[in-house]
Write a sequence for this structure.
């Protein structure tokens, strides 16, 4: 009883955190005062995005030239270093939220609670994307992951509707030792790569990136779309084919097996496992 | 370090999320939790990609992250279809007991 109540309270809490993350992400994204507006900061405003380039992608310019120019124009503008408390607060909030949500996913016994933690993680990640000036991808993250993927998960959990008996994998001492060594190695590799990245904070890291050579705001829908449909057109088309295959394949897999008379096959418990056992 | 947020903070956070996702895949037995952990790892990779895109001022990272999101959506659709198909026959989704192909 008390376990059920606790699970419910935890679910409500996770939902609340998710809604809070959404609200914060919207505030950060819409006002722009936390990260995008350089003039709102105290002190001399040394950081100003350069004026938009007057060279559009005309006929005389090849694709490769435009792409190179775009990469150059997208580099952050130089300026004097200064602290940005708003960005720091937003980062730590979203970081704590995402880590807490993901820990929820792997520790909770209740599947719905796990999904709610996942939704909170996705919203927090969307906020982090906005801090990185990826506005378009932040919205896509919320739509695709928190909207579509997690609803699908909830549907499947409702269909299954079976509590988990043993949440954690039981292995012998040898398996645990191997898993521990593997995890330690993974953490070591990640740390060694990350420590080699220069993480000193400089002004260009904090300033808003300059507009692209087409005059679009960096990270906006137009800028990402221009990049996607010029430089990455083939991957885009390949992804569309992949999605078609996934749709057809998932329908073919999830459909109940029927024989010629329309009788449903292999829908009884254990019917499919008889061959294996 | 607390008030000056640089790229390193985002990268360390992404590594942390990836490690948590890996732990979920290794520790849990429910296939749905394992799939959510895989989603978590893909998201951590996306965060890294977007951080490096911001660092180098290259919008190609954004395009790549979008491709990753689309592939993850396809993976969820097919994976959940497989889960439903397995559950229909066996009435459980415990990965330790899914060993037909082993015997």
């Amino acid at each position: 009883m008390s376990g059920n109540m606790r699970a419910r309270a935890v679910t409500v809490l996770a939902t609340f955190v998710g809604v809070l993350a959404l609200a914060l992400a919207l505030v950060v994204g819409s006002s722009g005062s936390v990260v995008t507006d350089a003039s709102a900061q105290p002190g001399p405003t040394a950081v100003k995005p350069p004026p938009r380039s007057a060279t559009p992608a005309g006929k005389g310019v090849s694709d490769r030239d435009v792409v190179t120019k775009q990469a150059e124009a997208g580099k952050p503008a130089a300026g004097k270093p200064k602290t940005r408390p708003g960005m720091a607060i937003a980062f730590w909030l979203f970081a704590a939220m995402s880590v807490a949500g993901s820990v929820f996913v792997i520790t909770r016994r209740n599947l719905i609670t796990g999904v709610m933690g996942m939704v909170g993680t996705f919203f927090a990640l969307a906020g982090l994307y906005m801090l990185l000036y990826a506005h378009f991808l932040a919205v896509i993250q919320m739509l695709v992951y928190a909207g579509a993927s997690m609803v699908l998960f909830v549907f499947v959990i409702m269909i299954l509707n079976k509590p988990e008996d043993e949440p954690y994998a039981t292995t012998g001492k040898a398996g645990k030792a191997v898993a521990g060594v593997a995890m330690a190695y993974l953490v070591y590799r990640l740390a060694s790569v990350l420590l080699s990245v220069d993480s000193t904070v400089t002004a260009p890291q904090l300033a808003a990136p300059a507009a692209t050579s087409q005059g679009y705001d960096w990270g906006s829908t137009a800028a990402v779309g221009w990049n996607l449909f010029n430089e990455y057109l083939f991957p885009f088309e390949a992804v569309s084919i992949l999605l078609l295959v996934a749709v057809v394949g998932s329908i073919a897999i999830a459909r109940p097996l029927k024989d010629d008379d329309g009788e449903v096959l292999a829908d009884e418990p254990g019917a499919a496992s008889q061959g294996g056992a | 370090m607390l008030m000056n947020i640089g790229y390193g903070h985002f990268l360390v956070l992404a590594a942390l999320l990836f490690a948590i996702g890996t732990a979920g895949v290794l520790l849990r037995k429910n296939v749905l939790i394992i799939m959510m952990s895989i989603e978590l790892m893909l998201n951590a990779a996306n965060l890294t990609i977007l951080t490096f895109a911001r660092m180098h001022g290259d919008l190609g990272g954004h395009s790549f992250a979008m491709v990753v999101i689309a592939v993850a959506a396809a993976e969820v659709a097919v994976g959940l279809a497989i889960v439903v198909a397995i559950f229909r026959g066996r009435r459980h989704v415990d990965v330790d007991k899914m060993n037909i192909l082993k015997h």
In short: The first strand of chain A starts at residue 257 and ends at 258.
